[in-house]
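Please check this.
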Amino acid sequence: MAQEDFLLELARFIERVSAIARTGLAFAPPGFDVERYEELLSEAARMSSALDGTGAATSQILDRWRSEVRSGYEGYVTAAVGCGAIVFNERDEILMLQRPSGRWWYPTGFCDVGISPAENAAREVREETGLVATPIRLIGVTDSLKIGSPARHIYSMLFYCRLEGGELRPNPLEAVDVGFFPLERLPEPLHGRDRRWIRLAHEFHFDGRTAAYFDPL
């Protein structure tokens, strides 16, 4: 196994162990099991600190994980959920925005509590770019671990949207620039490692695809 693949598997293992330990602490009654879950959490934090490139200390990671523990149902640790929007204009150009990092991506963000995934996608477009778009079809659901991301485990829902109106007005907190670009000439550099969305955007907009994508087993 290549070193990069090994590090990704190790990151996934650490995340799994910490999630199991935090969920266990949420449901376990006081006693022996709590001690074991605490021990697992401490070991996972130690390994995460060793693997982390930001220099986060074991105690910092452990304190953060412990602060996230809730009792019972509310404490069940799950993957984070995000949503994104693929929006084309009348010239068949795709909407892209440049993050403060300098990298380009389609409008996207975490799903907020209390509104649906489609509502979240429409809100991201409006807040980040000033445009109004309506989700009309689910393009697919992707898993960050399937593309080898060592970061937080995220399920992302991508929507094909119809442009309704508005005017380009990048949110200064989230976008340096925003515009429409031909799909074959996207601005660089792009965010992240996953490029499946480019093929899916083409299939849904130009080829009439309607079946949603999901990562195979």
Q: What stands out?
A: The chain has a mean pLDDT of 91. Helices lie at 3-27, 32-51, 58-67, 117-129, 196-205. Residues 136 and 151 are 30 Å apart (CA to CA).
